[in-house]
Design a protein that fits this description.
Length: about 400
């Protein structure tokens, strides 16, 4: 038979004391919890305040560095960007700007090391490759510069990548021109022209670079396309006239230059530009007066050929008198002896074969005397221009 031991029940005072103990412990725990919450909240706000302050300082130092770099004070920019990185360590954009500042300050080795370190983390970054291309160009390492330019074209870009790649391609073309690598520069510029937006400023820039790359024909095509646009810029007419003149298409050059001088914007051009345009227009006008246009009336054509023969014969005589290269011109002299000194216009009218022979001799004279006696001037220079591409003179 089990025996149960009965516990004595708590007295009223004991129960009251127990309740006080439980309440006191609960209050202590609640107090600890409240303190913990308050500390956590304070920590959060302190950290948030610190983060905001750090971000403010980062932006402030970065903005100061960017402004210094833009205003041509790279050393000051380096210090400011270093300060910005202290508040935002590992920020790639600021690191790139710092490397750019180092390059601008002429600290090329430091800049190259910085950019190469960044490139290890972002091997496809177009901006980094562009900066390395510029550094290589400064260091006269053409092969490395071109390689980085190409990698910049193939790389990734933030923002308007299309526009940035076009800008890089034009910069590459300019660098290739500086290296006299005209063939590749022409290739890059044709690619740029095919992909560039139809905005006059960009098209004019491409055409101008094409001229520098000795690609007058493609530049002329761009200028002529711009001329057909409404409110075409005066530079398009001037460029068309200049490039058409360069390739010997004198009638086209004359038309474009006449239209250039009639544009409202022509008066706003600088004095040198206006003078050059007017001089080229005068030359084109005179060339068309000298050119033996087969569409002229018979007598007018004969008179023109006779006048050209007189000019060329005088050039040959002068060249003989002022150089010791008579031997180089002996054959030319013999050919002129077969042509009457006073070439009859009537004789030329009656003998088309004589007209062709005479003009061929005129062209040969201007070309050979230019080699022996140096560049001609006046009408001789203009006849030499015709001689270089006689069939192109009237091409439109």
């Amino acid at each position: 038979m089990a025996v149960f031991e009965l516990r004595p029940s708590l007295s009223a005072e004991e129960r009251a004391e127990k309740r006080k103990l439980i309440l006191r412990d609960s209050m202590a725990l609640f107090g600890l919890f409240l303190i913990t919450v308050v500390l956590a909240v304070l920590t959060y706000f302190l950290f948030a305040s610190f983060s905001r302050h750090r971000d403010v300082l980062t932006r402030r130092w970065r903005a100061s560095g960017e402004a210094a770099l833009k205003n041509g004070h790279p050393e000051e920019a380096i210090q400011d960007l270093h300060s910005a990185l202290e508040y935002a360590p590992g920020n790639r954009d600021i690191e790139i700007e710092l490397a750019m500042a180092l390059a601008a300050a002429g600290r090329n080795l430091e800049a190259a090391a910085y950019f190469n370190s960044l490139l290890d983390a972002q091997p496809g970054n177009g901006l980094i490759h562009l900066q390395l291309a510029r550094l290589a160009a400064k260091q006269k390492n053409a092969a490395l510069a071109i390689e980085h330019y190409q990698n910049a074209l193939d790389g990734t870009w933030e923002g308007d990548g299309y526009q940035r790649r076009l800008s890089v391609r034009l910069e590459l073309a300019g660098y290739l021109i500086s290296q006299k690598n005209y063939q590749r520069a022409q290739t890059e510029l044709r690619t740029a022209a095919g992909n560039a937006p139809d905005r006059p400023a960009i098209q004019l820039q491409i055409a101008g670079l094409m001229e520098q790359a000795h690609d007058q024909t493609d530049a002329l095509d761009i200028y002529r396309k711009l001329m057909r646009q409404r409110d075409a810029p005066v530079e398009a007419f001037e460029g068309a006239g200049r490039t058409a003149y360069a390739v010997g298409r004198i009638a086209l050059a004359h038309d474009a230059l006449v239209r250039a001088t009639a544009q409202a914007g022509f008066a706003k051009q600088d004095e040198i530009t206006r003078t050059n345009v007017r001089q080229m227009l005068d030359n084109a006008t005179r060339i068309l007066e000298l050119y033996p246009d087969p569409n002229l009336k018979v007598r007018a054509l004969a008179e023109r050929i006779a006048a050209n023969a007189k000019i060329a014969r005088a050039r040959l005589t002068d060249c003989f008198a002022n150089t010791n290269s008579a031997g180089a011109l002996a054959e030319l002299q013999n050919q002129w002896q077969q042509v009457p000194v006073r070439l009859s216009v009537r004789e030329l009218e009656r003998n088309p074969q004589l007209e062709q022979t005479t003009m061929s001799l005129v062209y040969d004279t201007e070309e050979q005397t230019a080699q022996v006696c140096g560049a001609p001037t006046g009408d001789d220079a203009l006849l030499l221009k015709i001689a270089q591409a006689p069939l192109a003179v009237q091409q439109q």
